[in-house]
Amino acid sequence: MFLNFGTARACLFVLFASLPLMCAAQTAPAAKWETSKLENGTRYLSYHASAPQLGKPTPFIVNFFCYPFSTKTEKGMLGIEIYVDNVASLKPFKFDDFDGPDAATNGKKLLRITVNRPGKPPYVADTMLSGWTPGPKNFAFGTSAESQRATSTEKTVLQALAADAESLQLTITDPRNPKLKLEFSVPITEKRGEFKALLAGLK
């Protein structure tokens, strides 16, 4: 089967709307990794953790996904998604400005991706991102590209994570107040093999 990205997004909506994103416990849950695969063949590698955002403990998930194949009618996709829990406690941050196809943030590069590599300068890229609401307490951000494109920021990042990355930093800047930022750190060193498996078949 080939990936219809709208169908995949709908599957994710059901998944994250029907299950709690994270347990809002007093102590932060231990970080963990999970792999999964949608019925259409899209592969996921997911990092679950909790970290302070705007001074508040905040559970989050970072999804890395890839479906490397395309046909004339359906395009394979790859990219990164960030699911943030308990967004009501992060009120100063303007999540609504990112929401939907007509979002006020369209065309603005408010996501900074930093891939830290031992012995090399970090790879840094600023890119646009979309936003949507998977559940009443949560918000999601995402950036994606067609997997068959020769080059894209998303492909470069995922390939770097599979090659020699040590860690990944994702920083989202508030569209109205550049001093407000959400920052998500992901350890990569021990997961390079899983990233290679995620990208299997990618040209």
Strand-helix topology:
Elements: H1 5-18, E1 32-37, E2 43-53, E3 56-66, E4 77-84, E5 111-116, E6 123-127, E7 130-132, E8 139-146, H2 153-163, E9 167-173, E10 181-187, H3 192-198
Keywords for this structure?
16% helix, disordered N terminus, globular, 203 residues, four-stranded antiparallel β-sheet, six-stranded antiparallel β-sheet, alpha+beta, 35% strand
Overview of the structural elements:
Helix 2 packs across helix 3 (192-198). This protein is globular. The protein has 203 residues and is of the alpha+beta class. The strands form 2 sheets. The protein has a 6-stranded antiparallel β-sheet with strand order 1-2-3-4-8-7, covered by helices on one side. A 4-stranded antiparallel β-sheet has the order 6-5-9-10, covered by helices on one side. It has 3 helices and 10 strands, in the order αββββββββαββα.
Which strands sit side by side, in order, in the main sheet? 1-2-3-4-8-7
Radius of gyration from CA coordinates: 16 Å
H/E series: HEEEEEEEEHEEH
Tell me the strand percentage band.
35-45%
Whole-number average pLDDT?
88
Low-confidence stretches: 1-8, 10-26
The N- and C-terminal alpha carbons lie at a distance of: 18 Å
Structural class: alpha+beta
Regarding quaternary structure, how should these chains be classified? single chain
Tell me the number of helical segments per DSSP (H or I, 4 or more residues long): 3
Count the strands?
10
Largest sheet: 6 strands, antiparallel
Helix content percent band? 10-25%
Can you tell me the overall shape? globular
